[in-house]
Amino acid sequence: MIAIIDYDAGNIKSVEKALMSLGETAVITRDREKILSADKVILPGVGAFGDAMGKLRGYGLEEIIKKVISQKIPFLGICLGLQLLFESSEETPGVEGLGILKGKIVKIPEHMGMKVPQIGWNSLKFPNTGRLYKGIAEDSYVYFVHSYYLQAEEPEIVTATTEYAAHIHASVEKENVFACQFHPEKSSDVGLQILQNFVAL
């Protein structure tokens, strides 16, 4: 069973739907026991960093997420779910993130002809081997919706990058923690393969 953490963020149902299309049992929940007994855990979401951290803390989910990770259960953050794993975001100065990984979330710079938020398909480069990308060719396209992006402190954890007005750390992997800024659940066959690779861990 895959637990999808429910903290009132947008876009959670589409992750459930994608997993079900792969034949997986997925449960959207904030129930502590269900999350801790899951085979895999996903933190998806679209929304604002500060609001999301407030909800995670208000529902007592911060401690559960840290316990999941300490118990070595495979964990995947998607979009806002990636950003929340890090220490801080320029979107909400003064609000601490989960701090599970080292790095900061910064605003995509205004750039000639490049709209912010970035909404659309971009290709990936793989600077380090990532288990989520098994069987996926470099330069494959995935779907992004974001105004802020990751600058990871540890280059060795970055498994995918993309270029959009900046050099964007698009995906990371460290031990049992995986995260991607793009939306695999909206990235056609490539995205489904990424989710399948996570399920198969």
- Named at the architecture level, the CATH assignment is 3-Layer(aba) Sandwich
- CATH homologous superfamily (4th level) name: Class I glutamine amidotransferase (GATase) domain
Number of separate helices: 6
CATH class (first level) name? Alpha Beta
**Shape verdict:** globular
Give the C-alpha Rg. Answer: 15 Å
- Termini gap: 13 Å
Would you kindly provide a written description of the structure presented here, covering whatever features stand out?
The radius of gyration is 15 Å and the shape is globular. The chain has helices at residues 12-21, 32-36, 49-58, 61-70, 80-84, 188-199; strands spanning 2-5, 26-29, 40-43, 75-78, 88-89, 103-107, 118-123, 141-146, 148-152, 158-163, 167-174, 177-180. It starts with a strand and ends with a helix. With 201 residues, the chain is an alpha/beta fold. It has a single domain (2-199), classed as 3-Layer(aba) Sandwich (Rossmann fold). The protein contains six helices and twelve strands. Helix content is 26%, strand content 29%. The chain has a seven-stranded mixed β-sheet, sandwiched between helices.
